[in-house]
Amino acid sequence: MLGKDHRRNRVANAYYSLFMAVGNVLGYATGAYSGWYKIIPFTITSACNINCANLKAAFFLDIIFILITTYVSISAVHELPLNSNHGTHCAEGMPEQSSHVEEAFLWELFGTFRYLPGTIWIILCVTALTWIGWFPFLLFDTDWMGREIYGGEPNEGQNYSIGVRMGALGLMLNSVVLGITSVFMEKLCRKWGAGFAWGLSSILMSLCFISMLIITAMVNNMNLGDSLPPDSIVIAALIVFAILGIPLAITYSVPYALISARIEALGLGQGLSMGVLNLAIVIPQVVVSIGSGPWDQLFGGGNSPAIAVGAASAFAGGLIAILAIPRTRVEKSRIHQ
């Protein structure tokens, strides 16, 4: 919807990443605040303590904002309905050729793989490796902060809940950096090439995950017991969270722009290209969601084994992106056509 012209798609995705960052900052700020039970007092009950009440209040806020955004989406966007008798119309009202309207979309989606050239397969491979790297972090980021940095356990003392709130603060900083990076995304990709920038960001992501493993090892060697970690450890963890906003901004933008620009020549349509790319995201998500728990238990529990796999996967994806994706630069005059 943002970038129908593939030449503007990368810019559109950068703006999308920017406004996603704004929403993330507000959302993570909600999770970092510990006084919602005072603002919405009916959330705390005999069966729901302060931590439960804060979470419940956040859910109430979620419901309110979902209702608002749903109303805005329905009322503000005026789309022409599909009409199988008169063909399919695009947003500008120009008719497009549409055949086999009744064809199953999933069959069409998987049938697309037969026509994909080698460059697109490389992009899909790098996307899958990148998201194998991201999902352990996205699944366990606040749990890592509460369990391995603050040494707490859920429903046992305050260390874990303090760590989770500090993790939410780290994610808020992550979103701030994500938004700043999105502003400079187009200039960065135009100077270095989108594939090269993507590869460097994946290697940076891998180094951040390795830093998380080092911080975990340092905390384990301190034998803190029930004491809170020193400020230097907490600050280091927050810095890592913040730096990860740079590769996250590129992950949200560059793969979609690359696949969009290269799929146009095949005449398969932008929507179908996004569907193909999303398969390279969803399948790794399923693999990580199912396998990360048993994998962590195999090495004694904790989140470090899954994060180590994420670091290795991100590094491999970065090398492939740098070496295998052609370093094409988009000229400024083309962008403003």
UniProtKB/TrEMBL annotation:
InterPro entries: MFS_trans_sf. One of its GO terms (cellular component) is membrane. It is found in: Membrane. Keywords: Membrane, Sugar transport, Symport, Transmembrane, Transmembrane helix, Transport. It is a multi-pass membrane protein. The chain crosses the membrane at residues 12-37, 57-77, 120-140, 196-220, 232-259, 271-293, 305-325. One of its GO terms (molecular function) is symporter activity. This is Sucrose transporter 4. The lineage of its organism: Eukaryota, Viridiplantae, Streptophyta, Embryophyta, Tracheophyta.
